[in-house]
């Protein structure tokens, strides 16, 4: 990247969107390519992705199944590394980060919400939500307070001792949202958060995301659902590993 | 795990027993002592005079061999190698009606240098000397145990003992240290403890030809005892080509031989314990590998939420440690029950010896953790993407 030294909030990169929001570029992908090699078969999940996401933006990623949405999100979330290209997060080239630093960023800066909730079955609701704070080394009293606050926020504070299997899908996803927000991350990554929910529960989760956005969080959401696409300020349409359209 | 602990505890206790036995003082200094039996030519023992002359000459000749510091003929008992007892009663007490009711003492028939050869401490009076011979009054030297058992606080020197079979009365001239005649381990518990020494020259005439056939020698050597065998054999055959030495052994060997059975059970237990150790290592490796693979998805979630490698490592190891602790706990209970069965193989260590059990438990824990380190390391390499994919 040639413009990495820029200090001005105004992005100059041509890959940026036409309807630019004010604010710093939080995420910049430049020529990202992801190739999976399994049994000699190469899958080009992503090819030549360029995009800028600004602080406090709400973007969505849409596209048919298998087009690379989840792959893109996991690269954004530092769960996976691109095969090629540069990812700059908060003006930091991600490629230079150690595994330790990546864990730290995932833990403090990023909140994940998955389609399949991904709660840990052996842990109670409370313990699941507490998990990111535990890895942060936060004191017990402070953890307790934060967990309470975020469970109240999703309306699950009455179920702290339950196990995920004792909850409905909507309740589980609310717990997952509580877990994602408990550490007050600045970026929220949601991969089809409503995919396994009925419309009422889906609506509730989307409402939570909107609230978070209003409070200043940057949100990247993968969704199929045209109803929710409109929540986002910008939408990237992916097809076969490429951004084919941006609205 | 539990089985390994029981076996390890057994082996550990045996090792401690043996170590304890090696530290036991046999009552004499066994290092650099050579013993052998001697077949004398028939002519040597036709008359008591001839036999005594031969004995004297043998001692002279052997002491003259370079590397031999002192030598003594021994007839009768030899420590840990052969025993010989005589019934007795103390002078001044009524003679018991039968030999069966008399006390018995282990009898050593030796030459004056015996004490020097064996390094037995003299405690009171004097040891036998060359002045004690066939013409002088018969004297004996008793050991400390004899004194304690039959004289208590009285001074035994000057008192006399009647020996029944040979029909002699001997005056006590000295007291020496007790020798563990019956072996390092069992001597303390054996019923026959009292020991007495006679000068070979004072063996009554009629018994000399009989005993001459049982001559043996104890030699103290300057260096390794077995290295001297060649020159001793030369000296003996130079003296008389019909003299043959046999049963040549270093005293050290005799002592370690006396521990052989115990050592064998230790080695056996040790082998089984090592096997069990390997098995528990492999077993815990398998179990933890399995459990970790079962938790791949969970680990993926944790990594996504910011768990570092060492968090994952700690989590898997903690689970392994919990299991290992359970195994060790069960094993300890079992070991406490089972090691009691081997109490008679032990020496100087309780079957519930806390040091051994703690050491063994620690060893097992370490092996268990080593066994699960590899799967735990593998768990830290879980790719959160792969883990979260199967949805
Ligand atoms: N770990 C992997 N190993 C091999 N191939 C993979 C891997 N992850 C993704 N792929 C492939 O990459 C492509 C994009 O996958 P991705 O999961 O990003 O799609 P998606 O857009 O999220 O689809 P969906 O809407 O069904 O969730 C697919 O063809 C998939 O088979
Ligand atoms: Mg997907």
Return residue spans of chain A where pLDDT drops below 50 for at least 5 consecutive residues: 1-21
CATH superfamily of chain A: P-loop containing nucleotide triphosphate hydrolases
Q: Give the spatial strand order of the biggest sheet of chain B.
A: 3-4-9-6-8-7
Q: How is the largest sheet of chain A built, in terms of strand order? A: 6-7-8-3-9-10
Structure classification of chain B: alpha+beta
Shape of chain B: elongated
- Shape assignment of chain A: globular
If you consult CATH, what is the topology of chain A? Rossmann fold
Mean pLDDT of chain B: 86
Beta-strand percentage of chain B? 15-25%
What does the largest sheet of chain A look like? 6 strands, mixed
The top-level CATH class of chain A is Alpha Beta
Total E-strand runs of chain A: 10
Short description:
The complex is a heterodimer of chains A (247) and B (391). Chain A has 247 residues and is of the alpha/beta class.
Overview of the structural elements:
The complex is a heterodimer of chains A (247) and B (391). Chain A has 247 residues and is of the alpha/beta class. Chain A has 7 helices and 10 strands. In chain A, helix 6 (199-214) links the parallel strand 7 and strand 8 (218-222). The radius of gyration of chain A is 18 Å and the shape is globular. The two termini of chain A are 25 Å apart. Chain B is built from 12 helices and 11 strands. In chain B, helix 1 packs antiparallel against helix 8 (260-294), helix 1 packs across helix 11 and helix 10 (309-338) packs antiparallel against helix 11 (354-380). Chain B has a 6-stranded mixed β-barrel with strand order 3-4-9-6-8-7. The longest helix of chain B has 35 residues, at 260-294. Chain B has 2 domains: 2-22 and 260-388, no CATH class; 41-242, no CATH class. Chain A binds chain B through residues 70, 74, 77, 79-80, 99-100, 103-104, 106-108, 112, 114-116, 118-122, 131-132, 135-136, 179, and chain B through 297-298, 301-309, 311, 383-385, 388-389, 391. The structure holds adenosine-5'-triphosphate and magnesium ion (MG). The site of magnesium ion (MG) has 3 residues of chain A, from helix 1.
């Amino acid at each position: 990247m040639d413009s990495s030294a820029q200090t001005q909030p105004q992005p100059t990169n041509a890959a940026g969107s036409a309807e630019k929001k004010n604010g710093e570029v939080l995420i910049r992908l430049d020529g990202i390519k992801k190739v999976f090699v399994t049994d000699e078969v190469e899958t080009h999940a992503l090819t030549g992705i360029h995009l800028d996401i600004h602080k406090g933006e709400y973007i969505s990623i849409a596209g048919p199944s298998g087009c690379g949405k989840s792959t893109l999100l996991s690269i954004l979330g530092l769960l996976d590394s691109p095969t090629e290209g540069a990812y700059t997060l908060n003006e930091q080239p991600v490629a230079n980060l150690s595994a330790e630093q990546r864990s730290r960023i995932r833990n403090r800066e990023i909140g994940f919400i998955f389609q399949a909730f991904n709660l840990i079955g052996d842990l109670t609701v409370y313990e699941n939500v507490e998990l990111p704070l535990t890895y942060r080394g936060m004191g017990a009293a402070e953890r307790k307070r934060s967990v309470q606050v975020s469970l109240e926020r999703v309306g699950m504070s009455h179920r702290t001792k339950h196990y995920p299997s004792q909850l409905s899908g909507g309740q589980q996803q609310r717990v997952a949202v509580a877990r994602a927000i408990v550490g007050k991350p600045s970026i929220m990554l949601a991969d089809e958060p409503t995919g396994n929910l009925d419309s009422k529960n889906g609506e509730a989760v989307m409402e939570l995301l909107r609230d978070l956005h209003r409070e200043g969080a940057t949100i990247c959401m993968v969704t199929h659902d045209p109803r929710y696409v409109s929540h986002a300020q910008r939408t990237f349409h992916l097809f076969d590993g490429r951004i084919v359209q941006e609205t | 795990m539990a089985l390994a602990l029981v076996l390890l505890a057994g082996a550990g206790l045996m090792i401690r027993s043996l170590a304890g036995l090696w530290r036991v003082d046999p009552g004499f200094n066994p290092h650099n002592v050579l013993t052998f039996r001697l077949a004398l030519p028939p002519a040597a023992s036709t008359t008591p005079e001839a036999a005594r002359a031969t004995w004297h000459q043998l001692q002279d000749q052997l002491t003259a061999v370079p590397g031999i510091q002192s030598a003594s003929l021994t007839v009768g008992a030899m420590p840990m190698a052969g025993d010989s007892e005589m019934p007795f009663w103390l002078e001044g007490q009524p003679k018991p009606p039968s030999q069966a009711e008399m006390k018995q003492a282990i009898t050593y028939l030796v030459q004056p240098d015996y004490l020097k050869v064996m390094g037995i401490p003299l405690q009171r009076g004097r040891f036998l000397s060359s002045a004690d011979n066939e013409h002088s009054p018969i004297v004996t030297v008793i050991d400390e145990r004899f004194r304690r058992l039959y004289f208590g606080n009285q001074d035994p020197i000057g008192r006399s003992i009647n020996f029944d079979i040979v029909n002699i009365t001997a005056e006590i001239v000295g007291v020496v240290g007790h020798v563990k005649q019956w072996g390092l381990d069992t001597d303390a518990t054996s019923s026959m403890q009292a020991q007495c020494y006679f000068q070979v020259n004072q063996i009554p005439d009629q018994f000399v030809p009989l005993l001459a056939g049982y001559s043996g020698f104890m030699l103290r050597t300057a260096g390794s005892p077995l290295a001297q065998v060649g020159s001793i054999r030369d000296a003996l055959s130079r003296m008389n080509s019909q003299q043959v030495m046999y049963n040549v052994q270093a005293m050290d060997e005799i002592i370690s031989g006396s521990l052989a059975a115990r050592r064998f059970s230790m080695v056996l237990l040790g082998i089984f314990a090592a096997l069990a150790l390997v098995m528990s290592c492999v077993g815990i490796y398998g179990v933890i590998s399995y459990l970790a693979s079962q938790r791949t998805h969970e680990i993926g979630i944790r990594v996504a939420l910011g768990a570092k490698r060492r968090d994952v490592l700690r989590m898997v190891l903690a689970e392994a440690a919990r299991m290992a602790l359970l195994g060790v706990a069960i094993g300890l209970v079992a070991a406490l029950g089972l090691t009691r069965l081997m109490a008679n193989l032990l020496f100087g260590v309780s079957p519930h010896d806390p040091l051994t059990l703690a050491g063994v438990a620690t060893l097992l824990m370490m092996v268990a953790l080593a066994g699960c380190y590899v799967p735990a390391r593998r768990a830290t390499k879980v790719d959160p993407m792969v883990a979260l994919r199967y949805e």
